[in-house]
Design the sequence.
């Protein structure tokens, strides 16, 4: 039970407003006595400490920016080397195309027609010459946005940024071969009997050449047969489902004329011609 309220005089209220410092603070200071005087070396020590900190910062800045010109020179040198290599590659590619055209003319002039047709068919099958004709184009693309990736692996585990892997490209390519494709290229990389489609980190590699989405798989052959067979396949059905569930890009369509580039020449290291 509380007692009767205490009466507070107006003077006490005025003292509380005019003098905010409690008298107890002054009494405690009087009990402690006078504060010790500042030592003579306090200020020089503070100044020396500030000078040391400034010196360390200056040294760090100099060491950080001393290598900047050398790094810029190295970068410029690497860029120049890359551009020189690209120019050399373009020049050699043009020279190779001219030599191949000359070889083709000489071969037609020398070889009998039946042997010429057989050689051309073998070169098309090996992918060493460009292929032109009607066919089917299949496009696979990553979704524009998604919250979480599904658990679908390739040759190695995928990261959180990939849905499509080497397995997806291989399944489409194998289905097109099964439907009668005569030549196939993925993102203008021609497939040959020795081509390997692999997955490394976040990159899809075809014969160690990096390709990025969208993956455009072009197949030369009978366009009607390719389109009909592929549309009815389990592969097309699966990617139609993934298109609705995961939002991947998937489409295919016939083309009256496709041109697939030739693959770089490859010499077998172990296989020898039979006798």
Sequence:
């Amino acid at each position: 039970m509380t007692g009767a309220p205490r009466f507070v005089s107006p003077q006490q209220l005025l003292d509380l407003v005019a003098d905010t410092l409690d008298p107890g603070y002054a009494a405690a200071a009087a009990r402690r006595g006078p504060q010790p005087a500042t030592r003579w070396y306090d200020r020089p020590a503070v100044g020396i400490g500030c000078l040391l900190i400034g010196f360390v910062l200056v040294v760090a800045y100099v060491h950080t920016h001393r290598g900047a010109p050398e790094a810029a020179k190295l970068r410029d040198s690497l860029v120049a080397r890359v551009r020189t290599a690209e120019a050399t590659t373009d020049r050699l590619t043009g020279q190779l195309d001219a030599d191949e055209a000359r070889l083709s003319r000489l071969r037609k002039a020398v070889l009998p027609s039946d042997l010429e047709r057989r050689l051309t068919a073998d070169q098309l099958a090996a992918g060493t010459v460009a292929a032109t004709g009607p066919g089917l184009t299949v496009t696979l693309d990553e979704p524009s946005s998604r919250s979480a990736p599904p658990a679908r692996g390739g040759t190695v585990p995928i990261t959180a940024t990939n849905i499509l892997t080497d397995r997806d490209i291989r399944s489409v390519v194998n289905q097109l071969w099964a439907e009668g494709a005569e030549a196939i290229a993925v993102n203008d990389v021609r497939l040959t009997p020795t081509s390997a489609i692999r997955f490394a980190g976040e990159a899809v590699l075809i014969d160690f050449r990096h390709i990025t989405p969208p993956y455009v798989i072009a197949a030369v052959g009978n366009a009607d047969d390719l389109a009909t067979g592929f549309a009815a396949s389990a592969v097309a059905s699966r990617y139609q489902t993934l298109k609705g569930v995961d939002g991947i890009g998937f489409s295919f369509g016939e083309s009256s004329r496709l041109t697939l580039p030739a693959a770089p020449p490859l010499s077998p290291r172990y296989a020898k011609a039979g006798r």
